[in-house]
Design brief:
single chain; alpha/beta; Rossmann fold; six-stranded parallel β-sheet
């Protein structure tokens, strides 16, 4: 597609949806790209540090349709801690299992929910079984109604042990007024303001994760306070209408 654009002398806008440093081919091809749009400043910085000109690199945050993410008026009586995403080792689901070993000692009625599937799912199931935690964990497998599971959750955790390019699940949960605990690098740093509209913790820190989960479970007022501030942040910064507006501005600028 890029080759065709070059031959036809058309303007090119590239959308960087991942998080990897550009290789020599990327750097060469970037000379023929008018604008590279990344989903976070962190993703943009990875490209710029890798040799892509800053003048052709721009951040536009993803957005969501807030009318499809309306908070429930009532909170579920069950305490459910959910982790949403593909099962890959770098996603860090194993950290939540480790944290659960401590948590269930204080909260024997708590439930943990893994929403999604992936190559590392079997390893997580084995870890759960080896720690006699089967009755506390539920695995949904592949689902298309992720929002329904988030709606019935008390807390959403995002346990990646490597940087995320952004964190769509985080802003969806925040829009539903769910308190989110995420790791403090990559995209989440640009979404969550620690202790204001969510919580940021070091990666691969099950003890700290357990402490924050216990704190939130034991304090419903804090959950509500954080949840309301979380939705306010999404309304202000991650509305899909703003995303569309900024994308249109890029296309208009490049087409001049």
């Amino acid at each position: 597609m890029l080759l065709a654009a070059i031959i036809l002398k058309k303007k090119v806008i590239s959308h960087n949806r991942g998080l990897y440093g550009p290789d020599i081919i990327d750097r060469f091809l970037s000379k023929y790209i008018d604008q590279i749009v990344s989903m976070s400043d962190f993703s943009t910085s990875v490209y710029v540090k890798g040799g892509i000109p800053e003048t052709r690199s721009k951040t536009i945050y993803d957005g969501i349709d807030l009318e499809k993410f309306i908070p429930s008026a009532t909170e579920s009586e069950k305490i459910i801690i959910s982790c949403v995403g593909r099962f890959e080792k770098w996603k860090g689901q194993q950290v939540l299992v480790e944290a659960a070993i401590t948590i269930v000692k204080e909260l024997p009625d708590i439930k943990f929910l893994f929403v999604g599937t992936g190559d590392n799912e079997n390893n997580i199931r084995i870890q759960v079984n080896n720690n006699d935690l089967e009755k506390y964990f539920e695995f949904t497998g592949h689902v298309t109604n992720v929002k329904d599971y988030m709606e019935k959750s008390t807390i959403i955790v995002h346990t990646s042990i490597e940087p995320e390019p952004f964190g769509m699940v985080i802003i969806e949960a925040m829009a539903l007024e769910k308190p989110v605990i995420a790791t403090n690098f990559g995209g989440p740093l640009e979404i969550i303001d620690h202790e204001i509209n969510g919580f940021l913790i070091p990666p691969n820190s099950p003890t700290i994760l357990a402490e924050y989960i216990l704190r939130l479970v034991k304090n419903s007022d804090l959950r509500k306070q954080i949840g309301k501030k979380a939705r306010e942040k999404v309304i202000k910064k991650f509305d899909v209408r703003d995303y569309v507006k900024h994308i249109e501005e890029v296309y208009e600028e490049v087409s001049k």
